[in-house]
Amino acid sequence: MNVFITGMTGGVGGLLTRKLLSRGVNVGGLVRRDDKRSELSADIALSRGELDWLILRPSLLLDEPGSGTVSLGPAEFHGQIAREDVAETLAELLHEPRIGRRILELDTGSTPIPDAVRANVRER
Ligand SMILES: NC(=O)c1ccc[n+]([C@@H]2O[C@H](COP(=O)([O-])OP(=O)(O)OC[C@H]3O[C@@H](n4cnc5c(N)ncnc54)[C@H](OP(=O)(O)O)[C@@H]3O)[C@@H](O)[C@H]2O)c1
């Protein structure tokens, strides 16, 4: 698997880069110069394009160790969540090809991340 991360210099992006490398994924990325496009515009453009896509919307991000458990679904409460749990969820989602063309929200929860990802699989 090859993954290109546009925000690999950021908090979640850096953690995700390390998690994917440890899974043997080839990771590349963009180091931004002065691009001021809004993230919402990027989401809209992505979801209308030809590429397979998945948008993950986490609640307030914290720099603390992850718990390994989350709440993941189309509509979640917006509490707070460790960046490490966000990165781990993204890594797990990237390895679940049956989830695509969806917007999912992520919050702290009690479901182990692999189970939370599998629970969102629906046959396309
Ligand atoms: N903070 C929160 O509580 C919170 C809550 C929900 C969602 N989010 C979202 O979760 C994501 C990760 O958060 P984070 O705190 O880990 O982010 P972060 O540390 O601020 O890192 C963001 C990364 O995205 C890059 N980036 C920003 N705008 C870009 C653009 N227009 N084009 C290309 N690259 C761009 C940054 O590049 P540079 O290094 O060049 O700036 C950086 O590598 C962000 O999208 C954030 O908006 C955050």
UniProtKB/TrEMBL annotation:
Pfam families: NAD_binding_10 (PF13460). Gene3D superfamilies: NAD(P)-binding Rossmann-like Domain (3.40.50.720). Transmembrane segments: none annotated. SUPFAM superfamilies: NAD(P)-binding Rossmann-fold domains. It comes from the Bacteria. InterPro entries: NAD(P)-bd_dom, NAD(P)-bd_dom_sf. Residues 42-97 form the NAD(P)-binding domain. Coiled coil: none annotated. PANTHER family: FLAVIN REDUCTASE-RELATED, UPF0659 PROTEIN YMR090W. This is NAD(P)H-binding. It comes from Actinopolyspora alba.
